Amino acid sequence: MSSPSSQSRKRDPPTPASEDPLSPPSQRSRAHDTSTELQPMPTSPAMDVSLFSILQSEIDASSPLMYGTPSSRVEGTPRSGIRGTPARQRADLGSVRKAPQVDMHSEPVSENAVAGSEQGAGQRLVIWGTDVNVGTCKEKFQRFLQQFTDPNSREEENAGLDLNEPLYMQKLDEISVVGEPVLNVNCSHIQTFDADLYRQLICYPQEVIPTFDMAVNELFFDRFPDSVLEHQIQVRPYSALKTRNMRALNPEDIDQLITISGMVIRTSQLIPEMQEAFFRCQVCAFNTRVEVDRGRIAEPAVCRNCNTTHSMALVHNRSAFSDKQMIKLQESPEDMPAGQTPHTTVVYAHNDLVDKVQPGDRINITGTTLIFYLSCLLFSSGIYRAAPMRLNPRQSQVKSVYKTHIDAIHFRKTDEKRLHGLDEDGEQKLFTKERVAVLKELAAKPDVYDRLSSALAPSIYEHEDIKKGILLQLFGGTRKDFTQTGRGNFRAEVNILLCGDPGTSKSQLLQYVYNLVPRGQYTSGKGSSAVGLTAYVMKDPETRQLVLQTGALVLSDNGICCIDEFDKMSDSTRSVLHEVMEQQTLSIAKAGIICQLNARTSVLAAANPVESQWNPKKTTIENIQLPHTLLSRFDLIFLMLDPQDEAYDRRLAHHLVSLYYQSEEQLEEEHLDMAMLKDYIAFARTSVHPRLSEEASQALIEAYVDMRKIGSGRGMVSAYPRQLESLIRLAEAHAKVRFSNKVESIDVEEAKRLHREALKQSATDPRTGFVDISILTTGMSATARKRKEEVAQALKKLIQSKGKTPAMKYQQLFDDLRGQSEAAITKDMFDEALRALADEDYLTVTGKTVRLL
Amino acid sequence: MPTVHDWINNPLGVVDGLFAQSNSSPDWEKKVVEYFKEKLKLNDAHTWVPSLNDVPLHYLKPNSLVKFRCMVQDMFDPEFFLGVYETNDPTSNSKQVKCGKYKDVTEGGQVDFNSRNTVTSERQTFYCVPIPGESQWNSYAGTNQARVVPSTSYVPNRHKRSYEEDDEMDMQPQQMKDVSQGAQSSAESHGNTEPKRQETEAPSHDSSPSHCTSSLDLNFPLPGEKGPACLVKVYENWDSFKLNDMLEVFGILSVDPALSVIADEREASSLLDPTEGMETVEEQRVHSPPASLVPRLHMLYAQPLAHNNPLLPSSATENNDLSSDLGELASVRAELLTYLTHVLMGDSLAAEYLILHLISNVYSRRDVLPLGKFTLNLSGCPHSSPYTEHLYKVIQQLVPSSYRLCMSLHNMNNQRMVPRKDYTANRLVSGTLQLASNTSLFLDETQLEQGQLDATGVRNITALGNLISWQKVDYDFNYHQMEFSCNINVLITSEGRSLLPSDSQVHLRPTLNPPNLEEYLSAVQVAQVPSQLNKYRIYLSVARALNYTISDEITKAVEEDFVEMRKDDPQNMSAEDLHRLLVVARLLSLSHGQNTLSRDGWMKAKQLEALRISRTPQQKCVNGNEP
Description:
Structural class of chain A: alpha/beta
Mean pLDDT of chain A: 67
Largest interface: A-B, 87 and 88 residues
Strand content of chain B: 15-25%
Shape of chain A: elongated
Mean pLDDT of chain B: 74
Oligomer: heterodimer
Low-confidence stretches of chain A: 1-80, 95-123, 364-396, 416-429
Strand order of the largest sheet of chain A: 4-8-9-11-10
Number of strands of chain A: 27
Number of helices of chain B: 23
Protein name (chain B): Mini-chromosome maintenance complex-binding protein
Region (Disordered) (chain B): 163-219
Low-confidence stretches of chain B: 140-214, 261-277, 316-320, 619-627
Number of strands of chain B: 19
Structural class of chain B: alpha/beta
Distance between the termini of chain B: 63 Å
Keywords (chain B): Nucleus
Organism (chain B): Cyprinus carpio carpio
Subcellular location (chain B): Nucleus
């Protein structure tokens, strides 16, 4: 697109005192219109334009290509100051107007005094139908911009700004540097500054926002008289506190500023929407412009110049268009009541908001600040268009249903930040003060830990420690960042493996957890492939664009990934878990896309023993046949075994029977309900960040040293730094349960206890009965290793005792060794011993013969 | 009875009257609902209301009160409409305030959109379909009753009122008799043999050929379903309705041709002008289909249905009446058991389990665990013989709604089971697993042969597995899944042990070996007198709805017993087994019409289970890993 198009956008700058905030173009002078239409058409417009631009900065349409996208509009001539900067029509505010909209200067203005704004003595005029006084409103907003500070700001976009200086003045500075003429204003800031102004903004956004625009531009060009902007600054308010669930929208919200959250499911093609129509008289070539009002154009019936009727024809090339896009927004699944289908709403994005959001990929746009409109009424377009031509017999009959849509003013993607950090502030707002008070009251109870753990999956009997482990997993540790020192992020998520006999309700526990957490994923090892877990690259059949489709692990970022039948997973699938479970990232290198995705997910896995029944004579590794490299990444490994004990049976029977006959109410009394538990966890996760106290760190050190000591007595290592990290995480999670920002020694005690319990179950060497961490870390207990060495030594002795025989029969050697040794020696053990000796370069095995070297 | 005619034939007149009286105070809306509720309560008044299920649409008078027994298949977005509006008559220049509730289009004069009297209100639209899989005896019982009705509504309005009244008067006693006797008479008149039924059935479907010939997909969950679909406009409490709820809706029928014309014109114009309306053509078709195909129904009042058995009073409140028949239950049970034993070729144990299965019902959920479900796997069914087909026919005759799903490879790979959201048309495309509560799903695994399951097949198997284990279906919303809990009785017939999980597996052990299976089975079926069948149908529905408790004393005893059993054989008595035992005991007691578990009942349940397990010992070991 050539420069003419940029010129075409130039508009008469509105003078602050007299301009109409909604429709500046209507005010412009059109004295030169007759001259422009004489110019030659597309072939060589550039020269004319430059000429005109020197003469006047407000040349109108001259190019056949009028509908340029914002980005294609190049800066034309240098200009500065508020008068030199073109105002851009705000399609987001005025595309469709409801009912009689009275411009405050062109229509009679009611003379009501605005209560509470007495200071503007001469400015008692308000916009028709509202209580907005433009002067006062502008003054208030300018004061807000100049004075508002937010020392506690945690918003990411304010990073790098001095929080003690007026926030928005710094943003204006930013605009003058960056040149992007958009000012995002947080509505809650306005509310804390001036509640009345906020109320007006919410109730009359169509009137108030243009006033804000005016105020900002005045202020900006006062400060930076020389700066050059593409168009005048537009104010974009966001996160209005009247945040609504899509379901809660009702007729009262029409024409108000609202914020709703949802998921984009479809976006339309770009639609050029006519803002201003250009008509030319066929007889005398007189030009006129008509602005689009409420979606229609009033075609001039008579030429003002020559008084010919019906001589005006629309010239498309010279009409003004703006970009528009339809977006379908669907309720986010978290907001939905059970048993209902999600609602959808139509959203229109205008100008530079077009193509800001994409459908799918589970994008949640929240914080979208939107105006909720009643669109052009009722008439189906067919009848409406037909009306002037022929009298439709049914014209008076109108389908009595409105079309509704929302005009977007500001988009905010909630999950965009997931790539960088955590979107914790977004979730926090969900709780009302009362709810928080209830949660805090619960947290203050001394037995909150037990209460919560018993509330977890009440239908599953006992397994108290496992439930406690899962509870701590749900809370998670504190995120620590060591990127500065080069170690990257420390994992804060707790990983848990449940193994045990079939039919011990492992799947049920997983299902429960999956239903409890907002970002949970449930997969079964049998059905999932590596691709299904991680991410894959797909070519979109329509656009030929490569699209990254994310799998369960990425989707459960900041949540829990429940993997059932962990043992039935293929090795290649399991291997992707290595990276996820320690580094918490996923690396993809496929089809030219190389990236690292965050997968800060806790893994809750369930595995069945290989022999279908748990063999108590074998170690955990032998029972479930999982690589020890993976096992060592689990903080807690629990065995869910069927305890064979009469007292337990009795309690179990009682529990189950009561499950079947107690009524719902009785159960409610006993347990916290699921919703409460959900809220409690969500609150703790977002607002409690415990740190280790001096006392606690001492206790942790002692605990670790103790763990090391146990093993060292018997010449084995019983704890590794990984275990220490696990302990820290568990202790932090326990502090979170108490809503405490400090990890204290009781937290460490519980972490120690739980860790010990889990170890006792999973890392006990069945041969010796001792807890031996090396079972999990190296896959073999220390005693087993010792045994292996002994066999190898015995074999070596045997061979040496045979004297100088270079080669021996394999079978013969095996029989000899078996005869000699007092303990039973299996073929496996013999093979292992041979391999060990081969490693020492003492012998080689070729087929059925063993040769000495 | 002029009033009857007023409120059935011209309910909008009543609404307008009440609106005019109210002087625009907002409580007129409540009054309207109250008025119709009162009217319907009066001695069986609801039976006079013509039913959309049975009467072909073109026999029904527009803007009259009708009822519709249906299932909520989809929920559309809420819409804003003109609740109250003012019209401007250009000829007389007079203004008039009118009410737009229960109407699709405005009437009379130009609407003044800028009037201060305009009230915008909100309503919700549900897409409703007839309850999927309703058995023929069920809908037939309905049609029989309604067959009389068309004569009235079919009478053109021009007829003198007196004539119509007489007609109505004549009919009412007849209808009442019909209802009081149950469908006994109706069942006697037909339903003796299969071919005969189909013969009588055929004409009634032919009378409404528009339903099947249309190119419009009416989105029925089950393939081959027929019947009217309906857009139900709900004005209040729409949050209390859930997807797949069974409802009996009383509402004002709206088939205004203007609706379809608008839709047509829009369609044409939307091609010209894509910015207008922003709805795709598909969306148009789905959300505003021609009213002649998908009528609109403005809901005045809806009754949630606990069951769809026409032989029982529809409201669930009359539980007391049900228990009065308890004495008779025992004898009916014995007869049913004999019948099923014959059907199952002399296997009384399998028959016993089949009864338990048929009365099972998810009565409660504990977090994720559904309680009371009892999925039965009948293994040992002969392959490649029409046996399963016959078995299904028997079950179809007993339960109000059912569906047989042949698990052939082709079906598994091609059928759409899980409902899926179509974002282009903005609707929930139904699948076979979108079923109402207490539907019997008959999975025929004998049809499954060796071969390759593709991605759809695997997904379908997973969906079936989830349905059986958790009684939920995860609907596919493209970007995410949404869980909908359900209550479906699943019966699996297979040769060996089914590949799907089940609560209980019974291996069929026939004692009879009739030379010609088919002949034998049809003979068994024919032997059942229709009145007998009706007794069974009532029995099954009643037994399912009974309340059930366990006394503390029995609880103790059960606990003791469990501990003992664990001592004897810890391997074969796990928590899982106790779960099953408790369900069996519950269902066994209910099937005998007992409200509470007795010691005797517990022992019987144990015996039954022991007998069943003894039949399938070798299979238990194979079942090493969890399903």
